[in-house]
Task: structure prediction
Amino acid sequence: MDTQTWIIVAIVVIALIAVAAALIYRAKQTSRLRERFGPEYGRTVERMGDAGKAESELMAREKRVRAMRIVPLSPADATRFSHQWREVQGRFVDDPQRAAGQAQKLVQELMEKRGYPMGDFERCASDISVDHPVVVENYRAAQVIVTRHEKDTEQLRRALVHYRALFDELLEVDPDKRAEPKRADAVIH
Result:
């Protein structure tokens, strides 16, 4: 073979290697996003109608949330929020609609305290999906129930359960500020 043929073969081989590398990279990226976002990945693909667009959206979410200052709670804040949640839950029997509305506000306050910007609901849910992809669907379901001013007690109970799932995940305490764990052998029986 002459030199020109070798050059053409080399260019074709390099092009094939580049295409293969791009396909492998894309497959790994898809796998990473599916693993990271769980059910939110499928929801986003379905909503956008195209996996490539959905993956771009999910990567943009990651980038946006990385730029935020999401912080764990101090133990005092965690205690305060836990106490407030118990109060909201206790009010449910007497006034389920009001309790569900208060649960919504408490979750929003907790999100804000952690550093998530509050504003447009869908944007907020998208931000939450980066770190809490499994429970973001709970957040959306609860929001639908509360914003339609549901009066059915069972639906309101579901909203409270949905908000509780996100609340529990968001109630993360700063590990550097946790109280020292008690040793099992130091407990008096």
The chain has two domains: 3-66, 75-176. Residues 3-66 form one domain. The chain has a mean pLDDT of 87. The two ends are 88 Å apart (CA to CA).
